[in-house]
Amino acid sequence: MTLEPVMEVTVNDLKHLLSDRAAEGDTMLLNMGPQHPSTHGVLRLLLELDGEIVVNCIPDIGFLHTGIEKNMEAKTYIKAEVMTDRLDYLNTTGNNLVYVMAIEKLVGLDVPPRAEAIRVLIVELQRIASHLVWLGTHGLDLAAMSIFLYCFREREMILDILEMCGGQRMMTTYFRPGGLWRDTPVEFEAAVREFIRIFPKRVDEYEALLTRNPIFIDRTKGIGVIPKDKALEWGLTGPTLRGSGIDYDIRRAFPYAGYQDYEFDVPTEEGGDVYARYKVRMQEMRESLRIVQQALDNMPLGPVNSANRKFVPPPRSELGHSMEAVIHHFKLWTEGFEAPKASVYMPVESPRGELGVFLEGDGGPRPYRVHFRTPSFTNLQALPWLSEGHYVADLVAIIGSIDIVLGDVDR
Amino acid sequence: MNKTLEKIAADLKAEFGPEIGLIPTEARGEVSFVLPAERIVAFAAALKKKHKFEMLASQTAVDYWPQLAPRYHVVYQFTSVSRKIRLEARVPLDGNDPEMPSLIPVYPNANWFERELWDMFGLRFTGHPDLRRILMPFDWEGHPLRKDYPLGYEEVQFTFNYEDIEVRKPRPKE
User: Which residue segment(s) compose the domain that A258 sits in?
Assistant: First the structure.
């Protein structure tokens, strides 16, 4: 039996991305990843190194590509929603939110105020959970070991709340077009109050560990500086952009899901370096907690699902005595609802930046085209020029500071 | 429509309208322009310089197969961070040999968006410095998000068609 030679990308194919010195053997090519722990997933970087200094950095992505966009085209609008959880696995409910809001915008579906308040509350909790994972792993990358365990302790509380609502710790699919899967359980309020009570002190604890820690400051100040104009030009969003002093938050600029009614600040920092992005995210956790508090205190009563039976399945209790409800139930779960032949773009602020859905319908029950504009994909694109001239050890800090999730990059 | 956006739309129409037939369509609070491929770079430059659209938020495509002319629409989303407005532009492309100019000179982050469009739809961008596949393996054949590219599934074998399917069933190479 003869084995066919394994095809590989040769250095010649990438010659246009390397400096001339690479051909002469003056610099060294080094593979970092895809199994490297500090690349936060399966990111592969081809590094051209001059000693320990990065001359060129070529990201190679796609190891986690699962064809979600193609798969969604073959499912009905409701069934396709479960795939959105799997994009950015640290912001699962945020992905649900943007997808169901795109559907609602496309078909013109109303959402009751209680459902919107619960959505905001859950999404803000998820933002805190995502930032906690970021903080833990970022600290771990920079050799601050203990913070990782502290962060995961608090994250577990949030995941317990999500499990309470959606039945799952991570892939909840709790938000549905027109509202929610079901109302929150009785224990929900007490659990969230308990979290609100303890969390501010915990953030103080994290900050006590890192904010004035000389080792941490040495590793992060002045590293990976993003100038203002370049940040905009490269389409960076989220804390990465706000760390460069630009006040752009989609919750403020294009309010959705009732964010205009909440009082919160958009933290920005002028530094533009890894430390500034760290500061922004730390403040964002406190701001998110403020929103959670407001949402819980002013939680409206009422239904959590739209009464529009053409899009939202009727409650179980109606099925026993209403023929019409049985018909709607059957139609919605077999065939699904139809959306008009039109397209919408719906952006929301995910923990990483602008998460946008481009959704196009063709008049049938399945989405004709779904495209996710994911923040990690766009933010990662800045890595080559961001890492130029830095040490390999600092590259790890930079990757951590732009907070990528590879499921979000590769989709 | 938002007042600022209305004014910008009127400005753009005055600048590009007569010669290229810019069609602003408004639905669900969104403004969308349709323009030919050769004008997109000038259009984007005008947006960025004159109207302060600092950011190319997203770039994607839709395949209208089996319709061939135009088969694709490339869809751009521009955002003005300072003025808090968004705007969409669509570029129809022909089914045979789809090609259009790259937007990298104006918005450098179009780089990966365009690589993804090449990978997924087989659209070529002239002037792109690094048009390689980005998500699929480099030796992959075909462009997965095209509508004539099958989703791929296993056919269910029943007793009446067991042999037929057994013959054409894909298997790992020996």
Answer: 78-308+337-410
User: Taking the CB of residue A66, how many other CB atoms lie within 10 A of it?
Assistant: 14
Q: What does the pLDDT look like over A198-223, one tens digit per residue?
A: 999 999 989 888 888 888 898 888 88
Structure pTM?
A: 0.89
Q: Which residues of A touch B57 (CB under 8 A)?
A: 235, 347, 354, 356, 373
**Is 60 exceeded by the pLDDT of residue A3?**
no
Q: Which residues of B touch A12 (CB under 8 A)?
A: none
Q: Where are the alpha helices (DSSP H) in A257-367?
A: 274-297, 316-319, 323-334
Taking an 8 Å cut-off on Cβ atoms, the answer to whether A345 and B88 are in contact is yes
pLDDT in tens, A226-236: 998 888 889 89
Separation between Cα atoms, residue A109 and residue A312, nearest integer Å? 9
Residues 113-152 of B with CB under 8 A from A: 129-130, 132-139, 144-145, 149, 151
Nearest CB to B130; choose among A17, A254, A373: A17
Q: How far apart are CA B1 and CA B174, in angstroms?
A: 62
Residue B120 domain flag = yes
In a domain, B155, yes or no: no
Q: What is the mean pLDDT of chain B?
A: 83
For position B83, which CATH number holds? 3.30.460.80
Q: What is the pLDDT of residue A93?
A: 92
Taking the Cβ of residue B5 and every Cβ of chain A, the question of whether any pair is shorter than 8 Å is answered with: no
Q: What are phi and psi of A13, to 5 degrees?
A: -70, -20
What number is the ipTM of this complex? Answer: 0.87
Q: Which backbone phi and psi does B70 adopt, to 5 degrees?
A: -85, 145
Cα–Cα nearest to A335, from A78, A72, A106, A71: A78
- pLDDT one-digit tens code per residue, A99-127: 999 999 988 889 999 999 999 999 999 99
Into how many domains does chain B fold?
1
The answer, yes or no, to whether residue B163 has pLDDT greater than 90, is no
- A1, A70, A108: residue with CB nearest B145: A70
Residue B159 belongs to a domain: no
